[in-house]
């Protein structure tokens, strides 16, 4: 497999779009809607801790992917089994994101179009992109991230006349349990998923800058999400709780001089690109990971069939949007917690316990 | 519909496989074929209207059951 | 060299494959396409109760694009030449009624450009949300459309002369947006209505519209405000009381105010430049205490007395008089609100934001606290300008 | 297939019809045999002039001058070759010379550049390239006298790349003129040319130009090796070379740029690029090329920076409109009508009321009509061309609207597209093609279709490299330092550094002896 290298800056950008990814249209933690923008910041702090710890794995085994580390730490058989679990997680994440976007399109714009017609073109370009490799993903990601950041910053000005600071109050009226649960949910769902990058870090050309790059990306992504949420609350007030896609919804409230109205299609398309990168990263990692577990020389041939699997999964992952929302609220934090925090920490712990010999092997 | 799916899959297979054969990537070919067959199988099931279980509802039921158990236990 | 050629040829076939694949996907298409010329663009929707049986009667004002640039406007006789078409349909729910309209309309109704929702008061008395839910849930209607109440059949409103405009819904929408020229009406968007409805303690207001007969032609006029408490219409404010409400909300950004000049048979009209309000709600053990501070700037617009009102002394007096008028308006509105036990001023919302704990405690019995609350009103006004003349031409 | 057969056939023919002094062999000592061989080889071409002479101290020694009429400067031949040979020979001089040919070469001929050749092929090649061949009986060698001189076009302003301010000279079809034009711009010894002949039949001279010390040697090697791999019969234009050496032969986007302007080539060479001159065409290829280069015009650097920046943004906007306007129009008009402000929407609806076709079809048909008109206008003689465009546009457009076949907004959009397309002439081809694709996609899936298409294009562009440099640089990967000439056109004094992925060997444009800062390259531009 030819090593494709990306720069730390590109890694940061990838982290940004991966984190923003699908959360931006289907936020978790609606329960705490009014304070969500604050919870995002708390969750960001929490997640920075998680990821910081997880990155110790990369420090300990530089140049090794997560799966290679698993085999080191747990031995080949158990290691591969755990890696397989992660593959499932990546598949689920990718398919989930795809499902989110198809649902979004289906409920907001293309109500009569069959799922497949929306899924198929998307999957085709995702497969095409993945076959071109990580470098291409990273490069095409850069303008997309800049566009999204630009859009979010521009929205600050667009919503100025619809923004009511009164809507932000009260700051804390939720019970501690709600706050805690939703903070955790956000910490593991958009932020914790960055555990995926443990598979890609060896492909960064300056390993010593990796940690800073990942953390910086998370901070920027967290800041953007928080800002967007802040605006959404200020514009929608408590109405936001009503909507399935509040961050898109608040763009519908923009009215500037009778001309700029009904703008939601623009953020919708823009946020789609973030999800696009996210799904592409999932598929890429899935292919590379499978190739690694099965000790193949090339991941490219796997992209196509795995893309088809993602497509099938995306159709078969949620029976209905209501169950989807339910899942996000109740189950997803636990699943993500298992994969994004528990397993990496376990690996780190075991590797410390098994100690010296491993390190020698690694070095 | 099923015929169309099979044709598309065969097309995709023919698109990818010759390259692998030329490079003598046998292992890759095997995995590729396997995954393609899996995809084909699932697609045909979907197309023929067989009710497949929804992935996340399994999790939801599992976890909700767990939560309920915990709630009733405590 | 041969190898390069081989690779290129493979590249070509691969490229072709991609192209074929992409086009295969896209040739199936066009599910959601609706041609612009095949749409029935609805600009106004009226909701009324069905005359007999259950459900709603929904009426629509649909733009007739071919006629929009030719003569023959609103209210003029020939039905075919009018730039709009009025349609009614019935159904057990609003959604079904709207779908049923396609039994009569050759084109699909397109709701995204709807400007106004005119709701009959009978519907409002039974509760608005059942009728409005569709407009929130469906992806087509905008949340920014205006809500209006009317005692009449909404069709009467659509039917009325649009004055300078071609289509009355468009005209009403413009009318509402210029509310600050009088500040005697409070325009409410669908999103505003939802937001206030979600506040448990708050009550909504909706502007009213009615038709008047003028020289044999029907025209419409915005007139007063309906008070919606708990999603149901309970009473009305007249224009003056409406402005009393707007003073408290700080939404008076214009309009005029006429004061009596004591001791003389005459009045002075002042033009309002802007106003600001500050409301503080303090929760105590068993009651709330409300303090309303209104600041307002105005200029002398006209006078009907022969005394020079533009001297500094008179200005001072004017300020005092207009402060009294404002206070009276607020008190009138407050009295009405108390009578209906409807917190249209959003005192509860303020407490909710500033002192959430007390709100939690008081909310269940908010009506009582609201009615009993002592309200302190402070008005500070300034008369700043006198127009282009320094004094009346004739002084007596 | 047919061409392949034809080529084989021709090759076979060549093999049988090339007799001695046998191809690939040396000249014969016998003058008559040589002359006969020339006649055989070139056929009875009337433009082959053979002038026999009697020479020398020993009367009776015959010689011959051969040249192709039209390829040589008759004046040089007459004055500096023929007349010394016939009149002013002092046969006593030059005793040191080994033979008669040498003697003549050293003492008689007043020609600057000459060469002694014995190999038949080389002699013929020289003859066909405009040299005069001097043969002497009894010697199996020839003198190739450089007497090249033919009718050439004067240096003019390039028609396809007009500018308002700045130099107005353009390259011509003559390679020497072109290299000289470049030398006049870059007066450093570092400007190197490498020449090679390509094309079996045409023997076209290709010159590689670069500035040593600025250019990356690896780039030069890569270009050289790609040029050497070209196997073809003929090269008539720069595009022949382009299509052979391009990185992505099937891509819509060109990865080799060409220009007719010496100032542009000079600027690009000084940024570390390589230029490829092709004899016989005023177009010069430069590699590597970035997408953003197509949005730069020489005028950008001749106008004040703020104006240039503004104009450049207009260019971006124009390209955006040229590619996306019809697609967006279709998407808005038949999918997302809620996005159009209500009054505008009603106006558009009024204008399109009653048109029989879906918007997509309307737009595609009118687009095609426009393209055909444009093509007709380009091909015809200029006065006709203008008439065609005006009549076509006016009559067809007006009539279509009046007849209610097409809505007026469609005509407006197509007209807008037509104008904006020409703002970025370098991307005309991809622009038109993508526009069509996006329009179809918009017709099928609205804005989502366009988004899919745009993302596909983006991925494709991101995967392109031009001679190792990412095509989208400095936008992807972002090279902040280089954005000074992309997002804005910074004042000239602030444009000091070369593009990092190309001219990184010597990043500073001013201090050539400055310390090299090569290593820090973000892992991109790996060769």
Low-confidence stretches of chain A: 357-363
Helicity of chain A, in percent?
over 70%
- Biggest beta sheet summary of chain A: 2 strands, antiparallel
Helix count, DSSP H or I runs of 4 or more residues of chain A: 14
Report the helical percentage of chain C: 25-40%
The total domain count of chain C is 2
Domains counted in the coordinates of chain A: how many?
1
| N-to-C order of helices and strands of chain C | HEEEHEEHHEHHEHEEEHEEEHHHHE
Put simply, the count of helices of chain C is 12
- CATH architecture name of chain A: Up-down Bundle
Average pLDDT across residues of chain A? 86
* Structure summary, number of beta strands of chain C: 14
- Level-1 CATH class name of chain A: Mainly Alpha
β-strand percent of chain C reads 25-35%
Order of helices and strands of chain A: HHHHHHHHHEEHHHHH
**Oligomeric category:** heterotetramer
Word description of this protein:
The complex is a heterotetramer of chains A (363), B (74), C (396) and D (527). By secondary structure, chain A is mainly α. Chain A contains 14 helices and 2 strands; from the N terminus they run αααααααααββααααα. Chain A has a single domain, classed as Amino acid/polyamine transporter I. A two-stranded antiparallel sheet of chain A has the order 1-2. In chain A, α1 packs parallel to α8, α3 packs antiparallel against α4 and α5 runs antiparallel to α11. The C terminus of chain A is likely disordered. The longest helix of chain B has 22 residues. Chain B is built from 3 helices and no strands. Chain C is an alpha/beta fold. Chain C folds into 2 domains: 201 residues, no CATH class; 156 residues, GMP Synthetase, Chain A, domain 3 (2-Layer Sandwich). In chain C, β11 and β12 form a beta hairpin. In chain C, α8 packs across α9 and α10 crosses α11. The radius of gyration of chain C is 28 Å and the shape is globular. The relative contact order of chain C is 0.10. By secondary structure, chain D is an alpha+beta fold. In chain D, the strands form 3 sheets. Chain D has a 5-stranded antiparallel sheet, with helices on both faces. A 5-stranded antiparallel sheet of chain D has the order 6-7-9-10-8, with helices on both faces. Chains in contact: A-B, A-C, A-D, B-C, C-D. The interface between A and D is large, with 40 and 31 residues.
